[in-house]
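From the shared-data thread, chain only:
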Amino acid sequence: MLEVGSGMGHLVGQLSAWFEAYGIDLNHWAVNQSKKDAEKASLQTASAQELPYKNESFNVVIIKHIVEHLPDPAKAINEIGRVTEKDGVLILATPNLGSLLKPWKGDKWIGYQDPTHISLKEPQVWLKLIEDAGFELQKVFSDGFWDVPYIRFVPPQIQKLFFGSLGGLQAITGFVFLPKTWGESIIVIARKK
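Structure, as tokens:
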């Protein structure tokens, strides 16, 4: 299993109990720090756009909230396609420009708040890039509306309860039911053909 953009190593560290786990991140400091939490994982500094692995090396690749930071996300997704074995699984998450409530937030929407988000794209663009890299889409869903407030004069706590409950229910139960437009992030699970 490979986590692209492993950051401080929390996820790759947890998954190393079940997988032979690898993690890469562009931030050398983060890779060094992550070795404390991910002792069993093989970690290195590398670019998502030039993965230092042989073809078909992994049966699971996770890239969460990384592609929007890359100057050439298509190259990274193609690299992931190259290192993923046949029938391997890709899990990708990125901000959702197709979110129903994004227009309510305008330029204050969460995806626009990070100046390093240089590659925000509509969901259909991400899905095409994933398919073009040799993957077949299995599930496409969202994480719910959690970027409160959406409505002026309504306390954020009430909005979190109202808008966030479906995403919370999905996270707690593990039952994926939120359509791709019903959240701040789009999450894709795809299988390599």
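Strands lie at 2-4, 22-25, 42-45, 58-64, 84-95, 135-142, 185-192.
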